[in-house]
Amino acid sequence: MERIKITGGRVLEGRIRPAAAKNSVLPLLAASLLCSRPCVLRGVPRLSDVDASLALLRAVGAGPVRRGPDILLPPAAVCGHVPPELAGAMRGSVFYLAPLLVRAGTVELPLPGGCRLGPRPIDIHLAGLGAMGAEISESESAVTLRRQGSLHGVDFTLRLPSVGATLTLLMAAACARGETVLRGAACEPEIADTAAFLRMAGAQIEGAGTPVIRVRGAAGPLPGGGVHLPLPDRIAAATYAAAVALAGGRIAVEHCRPGHLAPFLRFLRTAGCEITAGPDGFTAARDPDIPLWGGADLCTGAWPEFATDTAPLAAAVLLCARGESHIHDALFQNRFACAEGFAAMGALVRADGRDLWIGGDAQLHAACVTAPDLRGGAALVLAALAAGGTGTVMDSGHIRRGYQDLPAELTTLGARCTYVKTMSDATMKTASAMQMR
Ligand code: EPU
């Protein structure tokens, strides 16, 4: 078990570059199964969700190879059986539905895991694949899909713009027979990134990144492969900007696309941060002696609205800001499980389902808190940067799912924080037994 130790009160300064986006890399690893020639993903961070994806690829028969920051993905014959412990390890296992159905003809996927943000059904993935000709059977713990011949193109409207379902249907349509039109598709940048990868391998896709995507299917696996550099991580970029908003100082976030986090940067500007954005980076600055302004009323939504993943980060920024604020998360029912940790640090907060009310004007103090999920955990680390004393974030494994080493990244900017190994239960028992002797 690991925890993160943070000593607050240090002003941040320096330059940082976000890694490739987790939410691009995970579907891209799955999409590589659709390619008939080798693929390479460049600059892939060592995240626990990436490790779980590589384990899943190996479990179905593929042979991914990590070479430093790159991942080589040779074509392989695969089976459609996903082991439950790998499906349960991350939400990203759902990205294997379409590729395994295409490649193996059948896929049995135990229900996917991931952050406990509330119910996360996969009905839109299944409705779309069903409309393309997949036979679907569901049990309480798994879903099984089969196809007779290749999937066929379809005119399909998503009942809501799900990122995951758009990616599933894009991958399936790229290899189906005939034309597919996806309406009401998600428009997040990660969709266009996956489409660019599929196009590189020979897919014919138009409109990715808009609500209507047209795909002319290859009636089988894609003929090509190639080398792809995934998008920079917009949520990591937002995390660094939020860190300087909390701690004060001035940082440059380089090699990212500020337009991909525009609502978050606007929020920081309104709160009193100085943000200067260029085409491939931005600077964020804040005078630590001047409090930020609260009074925010934020609502998350699908792209291009305020991203749900940045809601806990915004909440952390608003804890010490002047005046009351409110955040509503329209996507997930339990986005604000981090509120308990904020309260333990002395913040006045109330979470009720999708809503979080923040009293503002908090004098945060160090505490031992628990990361409830990936972004909530990162938000607790950020809040601790603004707290007096040395605090701890337990269960920090959640944070490894999306940041290679968040404490090290913040340390390069001048923060004082580090991962600390916690003894496992077994080690603790052995240690206390030895003391008793
Ligand atoms: N939904 C359904 N049915 C479906 C699919 C989705 O009802 O078949 C609902 C979900 O329950 C949710 C909403 O639609 O309420 C949005 O879900 P979406 O499918 O868009 O999200 P996702 O694909 O499960 C991805 C990211 C999330 C990110 C969301 C929104 C990955 C692995 N996850 O999830 O990232 O918050 O899109 O942008 O790509 C994270 O990085 O920590 C994370 C949770």
Characterize the structure shown.
With 437 residues, the chain is of the alpha+beta class. It folds into 2 domains: 2-19 and 232-425, Alpha-beta prism (UDP-n-acetylglucosamine1-carboxyvinyl-transferase, Chain); 22-228, UDP-n-acetylglucosamine1-carboxyvinyl-transferase, Chain. It contains 15 helices and 23 strands. The protein has helices at residues 22-31, 48-59, 84-87, 97-104, 123-131, 163-174, 189-200, 234-247, 262-271, 311-318, 339-344, 374-385, 397-400, 406-412, 425-436, and strands at residues 2-7, 12-16, 39-41, 65-67, 70-73, 106-110, 135-138, 142-146, 155-157, 179-183, 204-206, 212-216, 226-228, 249-254, 274-278, 281-286, 297-299, 325-328, 349-352, 355-358, 368-370, 390-394, 416-421. Strand 11 (204-206) and strand 12 form a beta hairpin. Helix 6 (163-174) packs parallel to helix 7 and helix 8 (234-247) packs parallel to helix 12 (374-385). The longest helix is centred in the middle third of the chain and has 14 residues, at 234-247. The chain starts with a strand and ends with a helix. The relative contact order is 0.15. The mean pLDDT is 95. The structure holds uridine-diphosphate-2(N-acetylglucosaminyl) butyric acid.
